[in-house]
Structures are given as C-alpha cells and as structure tokens.
C-alpha cells in the first residue's frame, strides 16, 4: 500500500513547536519513503519523521531534512508490526514570509513479501560481488 500525506508548515514555525501530523499506516514493513520539498523552501524548511519518542528518519536524532525543489527518495526496511501503526511527520519553517507544504509518501509492504525482497536483494548483491559489479 502506498500512502501520501501533506504537511503544511506555516511561516515562522519554530523548531521548539513544530508542525506535526500523525499518519495512520497499516501492518507491514515500510520499504519506500519519499519527502518532497517544493520550489521556494530554500533550505529554510526542516522535516523529520518519528514514531512515539524515537526519530525514524533521518536516522541520526540531530539530523533533519532541508532542501529546495527536491524529492528525497530511499528504500528501507522499517517494521510496523505493533499497533498503532502510526508515525508522526513533523517540521519547522524559518521562512518569515511563506508557508510551505511538504509531501510525505510511504510504501507499506506485507511482511512476507518484504522478507522475500530482502532475501532476493541479498542474493543479487552476492552475484554482483562475484562478478565484480559491486
């Protein structure tokens, strides 16, 4: 399943009181994540994702995403096996004039399919290594 959520971050939203949105997902494994920064953010809009008190992305707790006119995309293996299947998307905005809307996307794959993908990727990595392609 592929989920899409927009987070509006108003101008002058401080880091100490970020805009947040709880997003409901389903049981499974998050295998694909995207965060889209529209034109005009100019590195002034910062975003992150957490689950309860644990920051999930970026992985380092002090890290935050900030860019302009880019869609950040990565593949992961983040298990959502315990209810509630919920993350919180959050961010703040140092821009003193404009609000900005970020789009977050999550692909949740059933556990058995995600695990098969992990095994397949591992097997392909070994073949690439043996062929000198990695």
Written description of the protein model:
The protein has 134 residues and is mainly β. It has a single domain, classed as Jelly Rolls (Sandwich). Helices cover 15% and strands 48% of the residues. It has one helix and eight strands. The strands form two sheets. Strands 1-8-3-6 form a four-stranded antiparallel beta sheet. The protein has a four-stranded antiparallel beta sheet with strand order 2-7-4-5, with no helix packed on it. A hairpin with a 2-residue loop joins strand 4 and strand 5. The radius of gyration is 17 Å and the shape is globular. The mean pLDDT is 90.
SSE inventory with pairings:
Layout: E1 2-9, E2 19-24, E3 28-37, E4 45-51, E5 54-57, E6 70-80, E7 86-93, E8 100-109, H1 111-130
Antiparallel strand pairs: 1-8, 2-7, 3-6, 3-8, 4-5, 4-7
Summarize this structure briefly:
With 134 residues, the protein is mainly beta. It has one domain: Jelly Rolls, CATH 2.60.120.380.
The biggest beta sheet reads: 4 strands, antiparallel
State the distance separating the first and last CA atoms: 31 Å
The neighbouring-strand order within the major sheet is 1-8-3-6
Q: What proportion of the residues form beta strands (DSSP E)?
A: over 45%
State the CATH class. Mainly Beta
Specify the CATH architecture: Sandwich
Number of H/I helices: 1
Throw out a few tags for this protein:
15% helix, 1 helix, mainly beta, 8 strands, Jelly Rolls, 134 residues
């Amino acid at each position: 399943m592929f989920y899409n959520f927009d987070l509006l971050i108003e101008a002058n939203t401080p880091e100490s009181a970020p805009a947040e949105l709880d997003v409901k997902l389903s049981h499974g494994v998050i295998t694909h994540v995207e965060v889209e920064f529209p034109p005009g953010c100019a590195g002034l809009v910062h975003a992150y994702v957490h689950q309860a008190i644990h920051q999930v992305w970026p992985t380092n707790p002090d890290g935050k995403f900030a860019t302009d006119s880019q869609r950040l995309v990565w593949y992961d293996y983040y298990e959502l096996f315990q209810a509630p299947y919920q993350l919180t998307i959050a961010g703040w905005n140092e821009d003193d004039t404009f609000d900005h809307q970020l789009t977050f996307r999550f692909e949740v794959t059933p556990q058995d399919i995600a695990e098969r993908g992990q095994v397949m990727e591992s097997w392909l990595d070994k073949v690439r290594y043996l062929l000198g392609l990695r």
